[in-house]
Write a structure and sequence with these properties.
There is one protein chain. The chain is mainly alpha-helical and about 110 residues long. About 45% of the residues lie in helices and about 0% in strands. The longest helix has 11 residues. The termini are far apart.
Length: about 110
C-alpha cells in the first residue's frame, strides 16, 4: 500500500486514564514472593505501557519510580492500584519491602 503523507490521517492519542475507565483492561496476579516493582512492570507491559512510563500513570515521578515504591508505597498509589486492579490492598501492599502503610497515607 502506497500512501502519500497528505493521505495519512493522524489522530491524537487519548489520555490513558480516560480511555480505560476505572479498571485496567489486563490485570496480572502477583507471583508468590514477587517484589512490587516486578509486578508493576509486568502489569504495565500487559496493558501495553512501557514500564519506564508507568510511573506517570501512577503519578510517581523519577526514573527509579518502581524502586521507590518497593521501599515506600504511598497510600494514594496503593488506593489507585486497588481501584484499577480490584486486587485486595493487603495483597498489593504485601509485595512492598515494608508493610506499615494505610490507605490514604503518603510518603513518610
Amino acid at each position: 500500500m502506497n500512501q502519500s503523507a497528505s493521505e495519512i490521517t493522524v489522530t491524537p492519542a487519548r489520555d490513558y486514564g480516560n480511555e480505560v475507565g476505572q479498571g485496567w483492561p489486563v490485570v496480572v496476579a502477583p507471583v508468590p514472593g514477587e517484589l512490587l516493582s516486578s509486578w508493576l512492570h509486568r502489569l504495565a507491559m500487559a496493558n501495553g505501557i512501557p514500564p519506564q512510563y508507568f510511573g506517570r500513570v501512577l503519578d510517581v515521578a523519577g526514573a527509579d519510580w518502581s524502586a521507590k515504591l518497593d521501599r515506600n508505597l504511598p497510600g494514594r498509589v496503593l488506593s489507585l492500584l486497588v481501584e484499577r486492579t480490584r486486587l485486595p490492598a493487603e495483597e498489593i501492599d504485601g509485595l512492598a519491602l515494608r508493610i506499615s502503610r494505610k490507605l490514604g497515607s503518603d510518603f513518610a
